Amino acid sequence: MKTEVYNNGYYRVYDENNIISLEALKGGAVIIPVTTDKKIVLIKSFRPSINQFSTELPRGFLEVGELPKDGARRELFEEIGGTAVRFESLGVTATNNGISNEMVEYFIAWDAKYSCDKLQVEENIVDAVEFDLAELINLAGDNKITDAFTLCGVLKFIAKYRNLR
């Protein structure tokens, strides 16, 4: 028998014969902000779940009825005071399809601008930093980026724009 054991408005957690599953109630958007200088902007945020700082792409849940592109635009602004000339979808990924139905869509925010004076401190964001693609690849290879959303976003970006300079 499948029993709901928790619901926080973002996820429903079910237990079915001691097997846990998550039902995502809202989709999500991950943003790859690319500046006019072809640098990719990552945030530094404290993540209580791992009790450490994480370097990652901006991201967030969608609001009820919100289109993913609109959610990406909103999250970029909320997290780093960011704007962009154009948003390009790189498609979706299943975040943990072994236990969850959650899908997030990835967007490149071209010609992005942001302000370190407008960081979303209530989300524990403490900095926004620019990296070129080679630096990002090195950070991932050196295990300095461990966030799965970010690693997936970087891979999706490389798959399409590996020669970006």
Share of helix among residues? 10-25%
Shape: globular
| Total helical elements | 3
What is the C-level CATH assignment? Alpha Beta
Structure class: alpha+beta
Largest sheet: 4 strands, mixed
Q: For the largest sheet, list the strands in their spatial order.
A: 7-4-9-8
CATH topology: Nucleoside Triphosphate Pyrophosphohydrolase
Q: Beta-strand level of the residues, as a percent range?
A: 35-45%
**CA-atom Rg in angstroms:** 16 Å
Instruction: Indicate the low-confidence ranges by residue numbers.
Output: none
Specify the CATH architecture: Alpha-Beta Complex
How many strand elements?
A: 10
Written as H for each helix and E for each strand, in order along the chain, the element string is EEEEEEEHEEEHH
The first-to-last residue Cα distance is 55 Å
What is the averaged pLDDT score? 95
Number of domains: 1
**CATH H level: which superfamily?**
Nucleoside Triphosphate Pyrophosphohydrolase
Report what the structure shows.
- With 165 residues, this protein is of the alpha+beta class.
- It has a single domain, classed as Alpha-Beta Complex (Nucleoside Triphosphate Pyrophosphohydrolase), CATH 3.90.79.10.
- It contains 3 helices and 10 strands, in the order βββββββαβββαα.
- It has helices spanning 68-80, 133-141, 148-161; strands spanning 2-7, 11-16, 19-24, 28-34, 40-47, 52-56, 59-61, 86-94, 103-110, 125-131.
- The strands form 3 sheets. The chain has a 4-stranded mixed beta sheet with strand order 7-4-9-8. Strands 1-2-3 form a 3-stranded antiparallel beta sheet, with no helix packed on it.
- The protein is globular and about 55 Å long.
- The mean pLDDT is 95.
